[in-house]
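Example S7 (structure tokens).
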């Protein structure tokens, strides 16, 4: 797999990008087309690969396509504090190199895809977590995060002993508010007496709340001090700090996006990860790549909800699966959401 290291600031020439790729053992943009075969690329969100969460789930989809579809994969990392122009440059380079599809991981790529996609009409551009930018060659991969978060709220309300649970959002954006809304509704529908402590790490345009574990750790410690004994973090790499803090305090965590119980980077804290609100980012990336390879590229809104197992709760922690009453409550809520008996809010 060709991995492009962090692309620097606006105005960096294409030659510099090629040099960075060569330095990490990859191919330059000019010779990338010489190895033949289908090629696909993902451009990571804030935090990059190794966040144990959102970006790693996207990477898993690309890796699966390499194995099962014989696709040549490329990855491109973000840079700290980058602008939309940086993202435009990154996506342009990936498209020029012959990658199809080119997938932007995260809503922050919307302005860049809006600019780049019309210039490459034969290339499919995927964007995860955004449906605002549309086009004939754009696939909008979106999820019902609020539904999975509702189930997390049910579980949190059932296991808390202090009647205080926490929610940590990385950056206060409409997307992360969906996580908060579903979680609070699930808690309150299950046990109205449980107090939910919501907290955001940063406000736009500061997106450090998705990338700095120390921020998550400090926020979790503050909630632990207020007697929270279950903390749900939707904060990307920053969430790992919250997981560490809750684990060391002997309290429960609820992970996000990936099944964080099984993430190698969180192995020291896995026993504290009760469950995770999963988004099937892996399969969504794989499915888009396969659709292009099959000559029938996905376009428009592609939505993954509970009805398609596109979101849900992980069952990896044996301690969670042994909680029969909790599992029963979660399963009941899941079916009622699918049947339309429960409508989950998308804003608090």
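Recovered sequence:
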């Amino acid at each position: 797999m060709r991995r492009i290291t962090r692309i620097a600031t606006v105005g960096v020439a294409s030659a510099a990008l090629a040099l960075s790729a060569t330095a990490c053992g990859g191919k330059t943009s000019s010779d990338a087309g010489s190895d033949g075969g289908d090629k696909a690329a993902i451009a990571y969100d804030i935090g990059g690969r190794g966040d144990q969460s959102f970006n790693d789930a996207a990477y898993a989809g690309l890796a699966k396509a390499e194995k099962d579809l014989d696709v040549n994969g490329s990855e491109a990392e973000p840079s700290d504090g980058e602008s939309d122009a940086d993202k435009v440059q990154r996506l342009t380079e990936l498209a020029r190199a012959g990658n199809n599809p080119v997938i932007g991981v995260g809503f922050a790529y919307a302005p860049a895809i809006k600019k780049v996609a019309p210039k490459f009409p034969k290339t499919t551009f995927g964007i995860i977590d955004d449906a605002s930018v549309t086009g004939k060659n754009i696939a909008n991969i979106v999820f019902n995060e609020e539904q999975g978060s509702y189930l997390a709220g049910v579980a949190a309300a059932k296991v808390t002993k202090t009647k205080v649970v926490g929610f940590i959002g990385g950056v206060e954006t409409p997307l992360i508010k969906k996580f908060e809304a579903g979680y609070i509704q699930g808690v309150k529908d299950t046990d109205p007496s449980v107090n939910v402590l919501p907290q955001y790490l940063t406000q736009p345009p500061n997106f450090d709340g998705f990338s700095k574990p120390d921020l998550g750790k400090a926020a979790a410690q503050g909630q632990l001090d207020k007697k929270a004994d279950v903390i749900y973090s939707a904060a990307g790499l920053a969430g790992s700090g919250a997981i560490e803090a809750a684990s060391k305090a002997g309290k429960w965590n609820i992970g996000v996006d990936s099944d964080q119980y099984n993430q190698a980077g969180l192995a020291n804290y896995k026993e504290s990860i009760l469950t995770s609100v999963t988004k099937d980012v892996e399969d969504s990336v794989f499915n888009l790549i396969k659709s292009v390879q099959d000559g029938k590229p996905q376009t428009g809104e592609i939505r993954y909800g509970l009805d398609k197992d596109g979101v849900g709760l992980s069952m990896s922690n044996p301690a969670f699966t042994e909680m029969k009453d909790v599992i029963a409550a979660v399963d009941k809520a899941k079916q009622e959401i699918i049947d339309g008996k429960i409508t989950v809010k998308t804003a608090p």
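Notes on this example. The CA atoms of residues 7 and 134 lie 26 Å apart.
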